Amino acid sequence: MNRFEPNLRIPGPTSLPDAVREAGARQMVNHRGPEFAVLQNRVIDRLKAFYKTQNDVLIVTAAGTGGLESAIVSFLSPGDKILAVTIGAFGDRFAKIATVYGADVTKLAFEWGKAADPAKARDALRAGGPWKAVLLTQNETSTAITNPIEELAKIVREVAPEALILVDAISGLGAVPFETDAWGLDVVVSGSQKAWMVAPGLSFVSVSPRAWKAAAVARMPKFYFDLAAHKTSAESGQTPWTPAVAVMFQLDVALEMMEQEGLEEIWKRHAAVGAAVRAGLTALGFKLLADSAFASDTVTGAWIPEDLDWKAFNGKLRKLGLIVAGGQGNLKGKIFRIGHLGHVTVPAILNAMAVLEQTLIELGRPVTPGAAVEAAQVAALKSLGLAK
Ligand SMILES: *Cc1c(COP(=O)(O)O)cnc(C)c1O
Asked: How far is the CA of 386 from the centre of ligand 1 (A)?
């Protein structure tokens, strides 16, 4: 047991506000009864505001990956031509799900640490097709990059106007600017344990009228993840299968908090926190993984220097309560990642920077006490327009 209050800084599950945690302890209700229907309808209305959409939003009891799977099986058929734009491990996963279900997937992969290049996406769209769907990742958690989704979606509409645009927005939606309808996105997936400050267990999926048209003729095998069944149930305030009721209680409270803070304020807070982490890590001598023009404001990745003993370093961080994430895929052992989404403030991130700084000094590295915290705070203040 660690005596110190853990500072969980991984990109999901994220730490929860106390009121959200407590909401999960409430007595169960009948998931086919009136209380649940009222709860689900309220939650869906609030999710739509954060999605910035008039489309249906459905709640699936599953990890985010289940939401992605529902997006593939509900709208597509085996043999459909799909362009999967991938910039990291989660983009690869989305492509893999489509492949497993028999889609004809063309992968457009970019170097890890870079965003998708819209010009190359245009070339790839022109070179193949006819495309049934394009898979995009809004925020690639494995490489700490936010893709230019608006630009990418515009190009898809231009070159392949009929193609469905399916977006994995699991680690960005609810934290950074996002526009489902204004950007013309057909299916957008998110997950409760990321920006939403809720325990894992629920995935959210928005569905456009164009996507529902595709659902009517989609032939991929499906049962649990059939979104058409979810839509039918949602019309009477229900879900087709027993939902994660406790997580719904939490989501209701978290969305109320988010509504009180306001979408724009939430975006500003994440921008400030992201700037702080990047400046702090840089001041500590770390090299960042992400192309700075597309650096994510919800997660930051840094290279582990060759002369830093990662095990000793991470062990000391853990003793002081700071929990960070490692690398995924071919970045395993090469980078570490700090999650900064959901229930996170600038002072909380300054604390994480202080722990990193203290730990590096204890390991004998040439770090100036206070330098990283200062750099991080100045960056946050600049982002908030409170310093020059
Ligand atoms: C976390 C995450 C997922 C997967 O979510 P699970 O809940 O672990 O299945 C998918 N895509 C992105 C971008 C993520 O950050």
From this structure: 34
Q: Are 150 and 138 in contact (CB under 8 A)?
A: no
- Count of residues making up the chain: 388
Atom number of ligand 1 nearest to Cα 141:
15
171 lines ligand 1 (CB under 6 A): yes
Q: Which of 85, 90, 167 to mutate to test the pocket of ligand 1 (most atoms within 8 A of CB)?
A: 90
Span 304-317, pLDDT tens digits? 999 999 999 999 99
CATH of domain 7-13+262-383: 3.90.1150.10
pLDDT in tens, 67-120: 999 999 999 999 999 999 999 999 999 999 999 999 999 999 999 999 999 999
Cα–Cα distance, 368 to 67 (Å, whole number): 45
Ligand 1 center from residue 90 Cα (angstroms): 7
Residue whose CA is closest, atom 2 of ligand 1?
Answer: 170
The stretches of the chain forming alpha helices (DSSP H) are 18-23, 34-51, 64-75, 89-100, 118-127, 149-159, 209-215, 227-234, 245-261, 263-283, 310-319, 346-362, 371-383
pTM above 0.90, yes or no: yes
Q: Where in the chain is the domain with CATH 3.90.1150.10?
A: 7-13+262-383
